[in-house]
Amino acid sequence: MNVQQQATSEEATLQVSLSGFDLINSPRLNKGTAFTDRERDIFHLHGLLPPHVGTLDEQVERRMQGLNDQSTPFNKYAFLRDLQDSNETIFYALLVRNVEKMLPLVYTPTVGEGCQRFSEIWRKPRGLFLSYPNKDRITQILSHPRYDGIKCIVVSDGERILGLGDQGAGGMGIPIGKMALYTALGGIHPEHCLPILLDVGTDNEERLSSPIYVGWKHHRIRGQEYDDFVDTFVSAVKARWPHVLLQWEDFAGSNAARFLARYRDQLCTFNDDIQGTAAIAAATLISAINVTGIPLKQQKIVVVGFGTAGLGITNLLAQFIEDEGVSPDEARQCFYAIDRYGLVTEHGKDVRPEQMPYARKEQEVQGWSSQNGEITLLDVVRNAKPTVLIGVSGQAGAFTEQAVREMAKHTARPVIFPLSNPTSRSEAIPQDLINWTEGRALVGTGSPFDPVDVDGKKVPIAQTNNSYIFPGLALGIVASKARRVTDAMVKAAATELIRHVPTQKDKLASLLPPISEARALGRLIAQAVGKQAILDGQAQISDEDALRRELDANIWEPAYVPYELQRGAAS
Ligand SMILES: O=C([O-])CC(=O)C(=O)O
Ligand SMILES: [Mg+2]
Fold first, then answer.
1. Which of 272, 275, 280 is the pocket-test mutation for ligand 1 (most atoms within 8 Å of CB)?
2. Taking the mean position of all CA atoms in its chain, how far away is CA 18?
């Protein structure tokens, strides 16, 4: 064997210091029955394993049978979480080979129930719980050498878990689920990912009174104490991993926007609910417009729910509209935002400063009908005659039959996106939207839905979920070693996805590529994001060739490599 071959074969083996039970109990390193006889000799595994030496393919098959035996989505979720905590290679092989079937189980919608019932199925630690009583120990907790290789973090404080509200420590299901997609769809090595839950208490009384609740039993810390805690966390993260990517997830209302604004110039960070959701909503809308043929600047877009996600979507769409050669002011005129008190108007109740640019003028809506002083969705639809309806309200059924039928009177192909998650919070059911519009609606939903029936034909529904965006966005950020996440990088992710939407101009095509292609898309999105990071001067690599090399180096395939005993490790 020449030197080169030796070098290659050495690269493909892993030096492992654990043995026996410790090795089998490491989800990252465990191979279960796939440990070879030689590895069983070296690592003292004989007797701990049944005699059969199997393959990853067989293991995937065995787990698939076990999964199919589970009767409910929640049981399947729990089964897969157990698998993830016992053998990550099988877990990811199962996911990568069956994306369409697995995503609704490890992610939305089942992850919602996974968070609600987190304490029932808590078994083994995964990720980090940073609880308020441990606020002086954060640096110490993060300092463990186990975390030396961390490149990305998803953090939540559990207060706005999907549309399900405050789940306290159970919110950990979301960072775990998002990071499962970092690996399954982005290809990022699980060893580089750290899910974190900031446990600052919960105002969910059911959790507080439950004897099995695993979180800190205390009402939420708020105000300055809460901000100081988050600040301590971010400072500790920056000190521990100066180049880490920090993704914010499912923070409530104003906290999400506040933290993004406060920290985006301090470290490499983005908020998935604001920026990821905006990117996928914009991409799907532009795909729909390819079907209708009406340019974006001529669309009238109603956004129901004008919190962080609504604002994120509106701001990004406004940028795309400006790209069609209109002024920022004209671009803003395309939007009608509806929040808790109906249409957002200049002198309306509780209009926040960041919402103000989209508030409609009072004189413009004088004479519009209203209910108890509030201009409702139906009133807006009657008067503004919108072409697009986007829901990020968390309110199931907010898109009423009456409003949708009214919309369909004025628009040949109404574009309707009920984006709230999970399924139980969707603003409408796709089949209803199809029925109420005689099959004319172009539909995208946040949660997965079965294909709808249009004139006896099955039409797939685009899952307009940030899962199309954040895994590739994260991979692009990591591969380009970006210092910051710019708006242009998020827009590049959306623009790249738009390049791959189905071009079929008929009403039977989905508005997005099949989710089964998400892993391949993740790489393309990463390439576009990394390229933009270079253009924006944020990348710490020189050019696109270097980017391609980094992408290759960062993409992990779930497969076993041979193990050797680490030199110096006790055998
Ligand atoms: O997790 C999802 O499915 C999408 C998302 O970010 C949310 O709804 O908060
Ligand atoms: Mg979210």
1. 272
2. 34
